[in-house]
């Protein structure tokens, strides 16, 4: 192949070297606009996984890199006058300039043509003159910009300011210096990359940056390569303790906003993007260099494995996109955590450190325990002490007091619609469904949304509480839970609003009923989405009637014996649709600004709270974001939560979306928990109000991690309990926990030990002469370069 590469950074050079190795007949030319020794930034960090791939692909480069690596396992976190060290992580870093020099030498050795200080020819000319054109020209890619109509990029400019700097202080480990200044929280990310220097990245929210006056010397018209020397001098003063008398260096160092780059497509004909041109991930979880070199490896392999370029580029994108998107999800969580770091300034140091380490949700409690058991013990002990508990146990099995209701543990079975009632009456199915979940160990089991009227149902199969027959059937279920388990059971009350009168889920979710339908109402005459029924705008008199239906249903729920009531103000149902500007276009006192949109849901809440027994808690579920432009955001969710807390809510159950079919959620593991985190720290913690996290929480490790980090007080787990009704008890068995937080029903006691499964539990033969002792692997490894030998006269 005749290959043109635009961009001589690590990704472009590594790809050139790999392709030349695979077939020396390839003719490869690289254009780089900068000089060969020009580089911005100081050190680059690699994971063991990436290094394994590099070692397999090109041993010459891998060996040369290995000789230059600074290696360590520790992370040091300096916060509120304390320093904590966490080990067992595993890092390798080197000078970016050294890496480029190695790659340049390797390319020359293999016969790659390199043009430095040279702007690449026009992309369209290259496409007609070469078999393949690779855009490896970084975050400000001209290749991507020239073909934006095809690649369809999105550029998400974030809210913090940061600056790359270097220091001749050789750190022994990864460093986080977190300082509460008079202007707000500032932090430094530092790590060694050689025996002579370290990277030193200063970062802060843009509001803090402006309050500190750093905007005074931020010049858009600064000469290329120039550094903001006045800002560097101030950083040197602010972090004098971190520098410990050492120098701070600049290299094209100016204030930047991180931009997350995403592209709908990465290739077009014989043109393909790699590295930062295709995608970016925030520096707080790793290096863009790492991703670029992984791209290069995958692209070279796919071109070698497929007979035609189109098939190879399609395979490359299919292979890399899931990996990159997973990395970007983690990076998004990490960068948002640092953007909001001021929220956590009140946390006790051990919890703050754990929160920082688990910010991306890639590192969890179990990961940390495997790497540094001593630190995990500190986290468990600190959590128990903060809760006023004498016993150290897995966080999920620590008790919790919700209002006056005592819960044996912090696991909730989420409300899940079953669409299996007849005329709103729950039957044997619901008894088995909810009864099995209660016997499965959860502290609180929630009903599905129980509708307050026939017209308030989602489907004909939804349960209700608008008559005595329904109340008596619910009483049977509640009594079973109380008699056969130590769980509590909660009632979720709601009205479907514009999402009502639809088919059963498995017959066509959100599709209108073909017959036997009923009229739907909403705050405005706006359908949920295309093909959905248009609701009638509810009148003021009807709002009073609906509020009365909520009150009557709540009273029947109290008579049935429910321990807790949750008002459903989420997922686009009636009260949720009043809250959302997407669904509520009213021009009266119930529409417009958020305070007006809150009016009717708060009226219902107050009326229900007055009728619900005072000693039983009442909570609210909200959608924290609508996932659409012009909809509610997490900032609105904070104010919505604040309003319900002011009216007496004992907890806020934080979900998201389902307000409109146009939504575009950012799905992923525990993807909704950052909303709960924000509400807890900005509103709820100060008032003692509980926050419930929900949303793709699928493992007990995730539950423990969220609780220990202080992101929620309780965790609601739904689909996982459908897969395994005894999930909570099994989680206790997996963690070898026995105690009041996970008591097995007496008839099931013999099953508390995990049964053996075929050969997976077989006794294995000895296949090594000597056993490796895990204790031989150091938990704490510091980067302490050997001193230079003293010459002998």
UniProtKB/TrEMBL annotation:
Residues 396-732 form the NADH:flavin oxidoreductase/NADH oxidase N-terminal domain. Residues 3-328 form the FAD-binding domain. SUPFAM superfamilies: FAD/NAD(P)-binding domain, FMN-linked oxidoreductases. It comes from the Bacteria. Gene3D superfamilies: 3.30.9.20, Aldolase class I, FAD/NAD(P)-binding domain. PANTHER family: BLR3436 PROTEIN, NADPH DEHYDROGENASE C23G7.10C-RELATED. This is Anthraniloyl-CoA monooxygenase. It comes from Streptomyces melanosporofaciens.
């Amino acid at each position: 192949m005749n290959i043109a590469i635009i961009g001589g950074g690590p990704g472009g050079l590594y790809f050139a070297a790999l392709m030349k190795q695979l077939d020396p007949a390839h003719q490869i030319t690289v254009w780089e606009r900068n000089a060969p020794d020009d580089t911005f930034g100081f050190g680059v960090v690699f994971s063991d996984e990436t290094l394994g791939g590099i070692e397999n692909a090109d041993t010459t480069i891998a060996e040369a890199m290995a000789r230059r690596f600074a290696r360590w396992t520790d992370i040091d976190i300096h916060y509120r006058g304390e320093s904590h060290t966490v080990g067992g992580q595993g890092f390798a870093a080197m000078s970016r300039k050294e890496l480029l020099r190695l790659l340049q030498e390797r390319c020359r050795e293999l016969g790659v043509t390199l043009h430095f200080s040279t702007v690449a020819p026009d992309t369209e000319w290259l496409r007609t003159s070469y078999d393949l054109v690779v855009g490896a020209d970084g975050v400000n890619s001209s290749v991507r910009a020239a073909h934006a109509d095809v690649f369809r990029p999105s550029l998400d400019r974030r809210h913090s300011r940061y600056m790359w700097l270097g220091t001749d202080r050789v750190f022994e480990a990864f460093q986080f210096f977190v300082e509460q200044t008079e202007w707000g929280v500032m932090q430094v990310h530092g790590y060694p990359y050689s025996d002579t220097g370290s990277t030193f990245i200063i970062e802060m929210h843009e509001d803090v940056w402006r309050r500190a006056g750093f905007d005074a010397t931020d010049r858009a018209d600064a000469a290329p390569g120039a550094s903001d020397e006045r800002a560097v001098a101030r950083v040197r003063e602010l972090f004098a303790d971190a520098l410990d008398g050492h120098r701070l260096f600049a290299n094209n160092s100016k204030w930047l906003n991180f931009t997350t780059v995403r592209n709908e497509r990465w290739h077009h004909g014989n043109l393909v993007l790699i590295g930062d041109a295709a995608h970016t991930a925030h520096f707080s979880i790793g290096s863009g260099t790492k991703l670029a070199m992984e791209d290069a490896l995958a692209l070279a392999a796919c071109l070698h494995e497929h007979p035609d370029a189109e098939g190879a580029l399609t395979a490359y994108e299919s292979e890399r996109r899931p990996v990159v998107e997973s990395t970007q999800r983690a990076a998004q969580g990490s960068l948002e955590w640092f953007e909001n770091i001021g929220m956590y300034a009140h946390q006790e140091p051990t919890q703050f450190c754990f929160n920082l380490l688990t910010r991306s949700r890639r590192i969890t409690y179990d990961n940390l325990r495997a790497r540094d058991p001593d630190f995990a013990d500190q986290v468990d002990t600190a959590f128990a002490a903060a809760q006023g508990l004498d016993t150290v146990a897995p966080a999920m099995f620590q008790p919790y007091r919700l209002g006056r209701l005592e819960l044996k543990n912090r696991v909730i079975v989420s409300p899940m619609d079953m669409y299996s009632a007849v005329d709103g009456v729950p039957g044997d199915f619901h008894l088995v469904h909810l009864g099995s979940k209660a016997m499965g160990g959860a502290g609180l089991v929630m009903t599905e949304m129980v509708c307050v009227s026939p017209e308030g149902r989602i489907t004909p199969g939804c349960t209700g509480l608008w008559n005595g027959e329904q109340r008596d059937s619910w009483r049977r279920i509640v009594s079973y839970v109380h008699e056969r388990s130590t769980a509590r059971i909660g009632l979720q009350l709601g009205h479907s609003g514009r999402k009502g009168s639809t088919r059963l889920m498995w017959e066509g979710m959100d599709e209108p009923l073909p017959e036997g339908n009923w009229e739907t109402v909403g705050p405005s005459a706006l359908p949920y989405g295309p093909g959905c029924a248009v609701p009638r705008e509810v009148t003021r008199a009807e709002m009073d009637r609906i509020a009365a239906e909520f009150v009557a249903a709540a009273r029947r729920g109290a008579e049935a014996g429910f321990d807790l009531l949750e008002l459903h103000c989420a997922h686009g149902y009636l009260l949720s649709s009043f809250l959302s500007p997407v669904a509520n276009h009213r021009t009266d006192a119930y529409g417009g600004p958020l305070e007006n949109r809150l009016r009717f849901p708060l009226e219902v809440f107050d009326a229900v709270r007055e009728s619900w027994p005072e000693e039983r808690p009442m909570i609210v579920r909200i959608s924290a974001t609508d996932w659409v432009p012009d909809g509610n955001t997490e900032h609105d969710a904070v104010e919505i939560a604040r309003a319900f807390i002011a009216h007496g809510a004992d907890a806020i159950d934080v979900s998201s979306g389902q307000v409109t079919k146009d939504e575009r959620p950012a799905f992923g593991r525990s993807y909704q928990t950052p909303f709960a985190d924000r509400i807890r720290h900005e509103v709820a913690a100060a008032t003692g109000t509980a926050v419930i996290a929900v949303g793709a929480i699928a493992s007990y490790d995730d539950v423990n991690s969220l609780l220990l980090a202080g992101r929620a007080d309780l965790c609601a787990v739904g689909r996982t309990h459908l897969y395994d009704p005894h999930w909570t008890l099994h989680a206790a068995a997996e963690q070898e926990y026995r105690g009041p937080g996970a008591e097995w029903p007496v008839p099931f006691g013999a099953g508390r030990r995990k049964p053996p499964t075929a050969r997976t539990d077989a006794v294995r033969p000895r296949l090594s002469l000597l056993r490796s002792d895990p204790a031989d692997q150091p938990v704490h490894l510091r980067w302490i370069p050997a001193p230079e030998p003293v010459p002998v006269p």
